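Hi support team,

I'm opening this ticket because the web form for multi-chain structure prediction keeps timing out on my end. I have pasted the exact lines I submitted so you can reproduce it. The total is 888 residues across three entries, so I didn't expect it to be a heavy job. Is there a limit I'm missing, or should I split the entries? Thanks in advance, R.K.
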Amino acid sequence: MQEIIQYLFSGITTGAIYAVIAVGLSMLYSSTELINFAHGEFVMIGAMSMVTFWVHMALPLPVAIGCTLALGCALGLLFERFAIRTARNPQPIVLVIITVGASIFLRGTGMIVWGKDPFSVPPFSNHESLEIFGAALLPQSIWIVAAALLLAGGIHFFLKRTLTGKAMVASAVNQKAAWLSGIPPERMAVLAFAISTGCGAVAGIFIAPVTMSSYDMGTILGLKGFCAAMIGGLGSLWGAFAGGILLGVLESLGAGLISSGLKDAIAFILLLLILYVRPGGLFSAKEAKRF
Amino acid sequence: MYALADCFRLKRQNGSDMDDNKIKNRIEHAVFICIILVLGLFTQNTYYLQIMTFIGINTLLALGLNMLIGYAGQISLGHAAFYGIGAYTTAILSGTFGISPWLSLLCAIGVAVLIAFVVGLPTLRLSGYYLGMGTLGFGMIVNILFREWSSVTGGSSGFVGIPVLEAGKVSFMSGQNYFFLVWGVVLGAILMCRRILASRMGRALRSIHDGEKASLAVGVNTHYLKLQIFMFSASLGAVAGFLYAHFVLFISPESFGFMVSVKMVTMVVIGGMASVWGALLGASLLTLLPEVLHGFAEYEMIVFGLILMVVMIFMPQGLTRGFLDMYEKARKKRQ
Amino acid sequence: MISPEPGHNNKPILAVSSLTKMFGGVKAQDNISFSIQPGIVCGLIGPNGAGKTTLFNLITGIYSPDEGQVVFNGKDTRKMTVDQRVRAGIARTFQHVELFGSMTLLENVLVGMHVRTRSGFWGAVTRLPWVIREEKEAVEKAEALLEFTGLMDYAHHPAGDLPVGRQKTAEIARALASDPLLLLLDEPAAGLNAVETEALGKLIEQVKKRGVTMMLVEHDMSLAMGICDKMIVLDQGSKLAEGTPREIQNNEAVMAAYLGQG
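Hello R.K., no limit was hit. The queue was backed up. Here is the completed structure from your submission:
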């Protein structure tokens, strides 16, 4: 019992990180219909920037986080402007390969900038761990979950309540109609990219104190993020969030109770099951396009 | 009689168009064979022979995937799984159990086709990103299996002890013999692909790419056809895996991971989809590029990523089409 | 080759009974029944959104009905897939041209013959004599069809490069390639000019002479009135009227629906 609660705690923590990655992906998909295979690299950049700004340059924590976020968003802007918008034939498969190229490019850059060695980042707060039903809960976990919720809530508020957010949704639903009513689609796409890669950087900030960070950590995290987004239903914000938490918990339980070697397989088995049984995702009413 | 055909006068065709095509194909194949012979007979440098053998193996992979992506219009982001299944099946059967490699080749193809059938049945009902994610998930699971089932596969440290291929008195230990073996298989695969494409099956396949709705409406069982071509491309992948395993004699899970799947798709797209020679071009470029980029040492990944992006941004039709277009433009300007 | 069951010549080729199809609460087809005798041309008319294309999709098996059944040539089609229906003799064209654009016209017609030929993967790879013979016969038959529809000059052009009028005709040629008993034409005259429309009318007459039963959705009333033996009028998913063109012309309910007084 105590073990299971322990697995639950750690599962929810990693789940919250997956959730943030998935929310970024999902938000980009719902506003541009694009899947960014370089998304995981932005998580890597987020984690590695924390190493640089906080550990190496010893900036105050809020400043370091601010710099990391700014970097993530700025790189997203550049990526959209130079790689995505200049594409001459924006078919999905072409865009996918462009983002794959970007991911290799960013990983290579990461290797040059930070080297091949892994780094660790100390926890952001030094409080003692709490004991609940005999299981240890790190304060770190609590505020990762809280911050993830806050972020998802913030994006939800932005899309549903603010004028810019609504314009972005409108542009995604019907670009031409949105353009005719004076919404600039390019600016919306740039904004979506910046927010999405910003989310990636946030996930990187969260993950830095939890595991070792290195230049090649991005790929698998990005793929796990896809799985979470797919499980929840591609394009649905809270679906992606729930999918992330679910994935984290199942992974942690599976690794603890069955075999740690199969931990990585759980995400993909879950993905296949969802695709076969309910391709629209667990939390989506819409039927996936099968044609 | 209601049957229409019986009412029509049959008209003899002069069919000069068809014959022209046939002659063109024959010439292409002859040129291809000559180039292979010249390269194989006159290359002394073992390193070059080795690279060209890898190009051949990658061409097999690209050919199979090209049938699926370029002609049937179905993406697969997990095709390295079949490459790996071919390699591991022959490694285990001939290495661990001492079965003749040639027999294990048949088993490797059989296993790959069977798995393609079981996986393709539900997966190929998906489309677009969903199909991409489904195949990606499958590829990842297979790769994790290679890594974790260490009692059989040797785990992440790899599988050692794959026997050298022999046929009678001919040993395929030498680089030159292996070169001809691989390229002979490639030639066979090219002929097979072309025959399929020119047939009833190939036409139906291309029709799915042009418009699945209409091809369903004229009575093409699109799901079954996609499944068939998925199985065919899986079998080519398995053959490539077999050739790879008995060439390098050591395999490990990294050689069949997600990035390899992506590389395979890239070969198809960069070379130019829906073109047999495009697959050859794409495979050559993506095999040569890392070799050339060794000079860049640490910057290899950056340059590789940049090239991928730039080609896709400016020549989304692939290099074959891209260069042809440039040539056409230049010619028109001159006139 | 297929032909209607002998000795049942008075039996309808197509019998639709109490067909109902819902799309999220909206009744796209509401309890529709009618039957069509072999060899006739039946027009299907009605205002936009009346459910004409939905009806075609139900007959060809793209959608399955919520209630009711479609009996084709004496067989219940409920359990038949789309390609089985084509094999049984139902062919169709589309409202918006759906040719295989990158393939030549000849290849398009050859794909149309898919259900009447049988070589598969092994046939393609081995090229046994029967495969080569089948291919040769298929090409001959396809060329005869292109000759019949007057498209022989374009046989080796990519279908996507042809003008719309030719593409519309090409779709008919492709549909005929499956030796259909029943041909469903979805707005064959849409996008055609007057000359082309007239040629289309003649082509339909000739196809009728071959013994193919046809159903067509058409907005061009002069064309429809001229070539149809029978007409069915749909409005908002239900059948408004059925009869000869003359009867339909004088039907008050039809007039009301078209003039928006219903």
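A quick check on our side: Residues 129-148 of chain C form the longest helix (20 residues). Let us know if the file doesn't open in your viewer.
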